[in-house]
Amino acid sequence: MKKKKKTPRRAAAKGANRAKPAARKAAPKFVREFLNPHFGYFYTWDKVLAQTKTKFQELKVVKTPEFGKVLLLDGITQVGEKHEFLYHEPMVHPALLAHPEPESVCIIGGGDGGIAREVLKHPSVRRVDQVDIDGDVYAFSEKHLPSVSGGAFRDPRLKKITADGREWIEKSRGQYDVVLMDMTDPFGPAKMLYTREYFEAVKASFRDPAKGLFTMHAESPISRPRTFNSILQTLGLVFHHVSPFYLYIQMYAVQWCVAVASDHWNLKDIAPDVIDEKIRLRRLYNLQVVNGATFRAMQAEFPYLAAIRARKAKLLTDHSPDVEDVIGGH
What we know:
- This protein is α/β, with parallel strands linked by helices.
- The chain has two domains: about 30-80, Spermidine Synthase, Chain: A, domain 2, CATH 2.30.140; about 85-310, Vaccinia Virus protein VP39 (Rossmann fold, 3-Layer(aba) Sandwich), CATH 3.40.50.150.
- It has helices spanning about 10-15, 85-100, 115-120, 135-145, 145-150, 165-170, 195-205, 225-240, 270-280, 290-295, 305-310; strands at about 30-35, 40-45, 45-55, 60-65, 70-75, 75-80, 105-110, 125-130, 160, 180, 215, 240-250, 255-260.
């Protein structure tokens, strides 16, 4: 017996009920970074929002589900919108709160503007010299990542300077109350800003050597312990007091260290209530990381950190500036 043919109407009706194939999702795109040859992290990004090449490097801003907008320099994460205060507040406020009345500040690097934003919150600050070897980073960051600088680049107290940071410091004797260094990791040309001779130039740039303070990141005791120790011990050759602050920074995915160095101020000696009172008097509203309690807590040192610091470290000099850890590790 022959099967009856389906009428066009019935066939069309059945076809209309068929499920359409699901749209294929685009494969996720990743930023993968090695913190040493055996350890690193990743995050995903959706699209490139802006990209350019300068004389020195490739600048890129990408949109990410985790961090919002992220600035990459030569593919390396510099700053993301989410939780950027975990880095910028400890880089700025411990030193400026330790100083009785900071007026003149120099920022080496930090072209995204986050450090400048925090510095300019202090009402006594009258002059900020921001020095970056790649002046294109200022305008690129202000245009494509304005939430990080928060209007700092339009503040009349801030002077944007395109110059080599080391050369600038070496010719700026007696100029600053506080120097803050927000540089890339110590490899390539940047390694010359991690040496004893450079730290001596920083010290000479203080208006008052007895009161001046210098802040820099001192890498990670987790992923680069020898570099961390070398930086702290080299700082100790130049300054009487080196105060490490330990913190977790999400956009760097690991425990990190910020070091504050001075000949006069041992930051462990500053009581939490003194810090809280200075925050109140300076009207530093809405700080999300730094207060009196955390100022003290971030200086607490786990025993394993003390053990790392007790080891003999390579001292970094102009003659021998290379760190012992492998930075990156592809």
